[in-house]
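Students often ask why we bother encoding 3D structure as a string. The short answer is that it lets us treat folding as translation between two languages. Here is a chain of 228 residues written in the first language.
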Amino acid sequence: SQCNVEGPYIAMTFDDGPHKEQTPRLLDMLKQRKLKATFFVCGNCVAEYPQIAKRIVEEGHEIASHSWSHPNLIPMSESAVRDQLERTHAIVKQATGVEMKMFRPPYGNFTQRQKNWAFATYGYRTILWDVDTLDWQHRNPARTESIALAQTRPGSIVLQHDIHKTTVDAMPATLDGLVAKGFKFVTVSELVAMDKPVAPKPKATPSPDGGKAPGTPAPGEKSEPGQK
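And here it is in the second language, the structure alphabet:
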């Protein structure tokens, strides 16, 4: 859902497209600013607008899977989930030549077992988000911009949807505002490649008077679960 990175790097992500009108508008905005994004596409939309999917890739953005028709995958059978992913993988490869490596489940709903299966079968990393602009819900460009600018941090994965005109209307001010704050835009794959393990907190040292460090069991004591 987010990465631990050195530097002001973020990933802007757009779900549910491509849309025949809004995605090209967004691509124009990104191209003008020389910014990169990641598009989690639905297979049925790629089937309808393969040229837009091809443009996404040709202009240096990342294309990734968001299932075929955006169902809730958790209650579905393995064969039904496989159909959703395989059809999307095939149509994106046909349209763009790309073998996708990232997957975002619709609604973020995916069990750990399903995540493991998707990784073993397709090499998919399951990608969620830490900044949700709720653009699909309120359809308010100013609010989309406000949430993105207030909540984005280095390593953030920002969620939006390029099927809504109000979302794309919000992007000039949102993108320019994030650039003004010093953020650098990368794809999700690039952000994940930068991810570093969070350093463990330093262990407490014994006090000078010989007392035991806080949280350290005395000889003969057992540490409580969760203590290190």
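Translate back mentally: Confidence is low (pLDDT under 50) at residues 210-228. Keep this in mind for the problem set.
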